[in-house]
Design brief:
single chain; alpha+beta; Immunoglobulin-like; Double Stranded RNA Binding Domain; 6-stranded mixed β-sheet; 5-stranded mixed β-sheet; 12 helices; 20 strands; 31% strand
Amino acid sequence: MMHLLRWRNGVLGALFAALLFASCGSQRQLADSTPAWVTERPAMPGYYLGIASTSKAQHPFNAAEVAKSRALSALAGEISVKVEATSVLNTLQRDARVSQRFEEDIRSSSQEDLEGYELVGVHETDTEVWAYYRLNKATYDRIKAERKSAAVAVAAGFYEAGLAAEQSRDVGSALDRFVRGLSALERYWGEVNWWQNAAGERVAVDQACLIGINRVLNGLRLEASVSEVELGFGTHYRGEVVVQTLLEGGAVPNLPLIARYSRGTLPHRKVVRTNGDGMAAVVIDGFDPGVRRAELRVNIDVDALMPELPGLAVQALIDGLEAPELLVPIRLVEPTVFISGRESAFGGPTRDRALQQALSSALSERGVRITDSEAQADLIIELTSDTQQGGQGQGFHTALLNASIQLMDRNGDLVLHKTMDRVKGVQLSWDAASQAAYTKASMEIRGSFLQEMLESLYQ
């Protein structure tokens, strides 16, 4: 019995030892199969490295592709952009939008532009996938230099075309070429991008394009044919301002301009282009009745001159460009009105001039000057009115008023003719009924008639 017991214990001990040895061997084999770059980042000064992993639980169908994409992103992130002090980007640092857009563009495009990298390895476990890329720094510098050289050549072509257009005062073409030249080197704005011209001079070509843009815009001048616009009834509050555009003292043809002014309730905007002599006529009209002052504001339509380019940083730069502005005050002179009238009641003279007083006070309130001299008036109002008996009953008397109002200019030409027919007034006597009819007509004059009359002055 004791022998049997010792034999069984020996067998169990051997089995346990075998299991323990197998387990240790499996762990050593697993540890040996895990690449060193998974547990510790390699030290390789001559390379850019990109190592990343992804969870199979989060990406059960494409974990390997996601891991590789992340590794490439990490590789691109290794390539930092160092902004040189004399670069275009440093010049634009004052504009935070341009700098931000530039950095966003670089981050989004770096992975797309990578070349010469190699996949060192992919490691997969039950739960994760790892990927490892590397890029030789010397290879990257060579590829980048080749690309940059090609971009500089393109930018230089645009720059020279911009200079030629500027010399001929073709502002639209000059700005277009300078902007395209700047855009061609957008990826290298953090560096100084040298180019040698035909005279052997070294030129930082993207800086030269930026300087060209500012030189053209700052060199433009807008001049108006008048220092102030004065509009009156004689021209029905219409006028014209001729704007002259100049660059270095010479006329600039085919330049788009935006003219803005307030008509009263709403602002008005017009787009005009300069002719071959660099001139554009801006017509001013359509003012609301009662407007006395406004301002004409003329700007160069920079957006219309600029090309549509995909670069976000270039677009942010264009949005921030400023061009000269022209301001011309507008003064609208109120008309002078002379009122003559003959107001009657039942065919005889009235004790007061109700309609004439209503007209005079209402026009004065709306900024129209009333004069006692017909010779000094811009407009003449002739008013005739009379009442007639309309009937009576149960102690009430009804008066009916008919009136004619004519608005004429100083030449006697009719501007507006208004009639009021059978305006009813009801009171306990004929005189009171007539006065009631005049009161009712006066209210109508201060309302719809006055508005119609004022509108006619501006048409």
